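Worked example 2:
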Amino acid sequence: MDTLARLFTPGARRRAAAQLRLVEAYQAVFGGNGTKQDAEIVLTDMTNVSGVYAVESADVSATARAFADGRRDLMMRILRMAKMTAEQRSALFDAVMAEEEADNQEGYT
């Protein structure tokens, strides 16, 4: 599965070119002209941002937890509706982990 972490060299992923590619992917997908690569980039970004695979710390406020739960709930609905195969879910997990690792390497959390 293609992700920005795999398309751009370490350290460059968040630069203007990578952000532009992310915006282009979203516009293509939601404009009805997206490629498979666009869809993979968007799905990975949405899953990563939603925090589906993240663990909340115990000291987070009730309000912050509610917002995080809402993001995860919406993303889980999208994933359920997509009826992904086990192989596709595994590839998505790997892609999200690659994004998270790139975030950590670049100082984003």
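The helical segments are 4-7, 16-31, 36-50, 62-82, 86-105. Residues 62-82 form the longest helix (21 residues).
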